[in-house]
Amino acid sequence: MEKITVSVVDAKKQFSEFINRSAFSKYRVIITKRNRPVAAIISMKDLQELEQAEKRKGLLSVIHKWKNFEEIQNTSLVSSP
Question: pTM for this structure?
Answer without folding.
Answer: 0.66
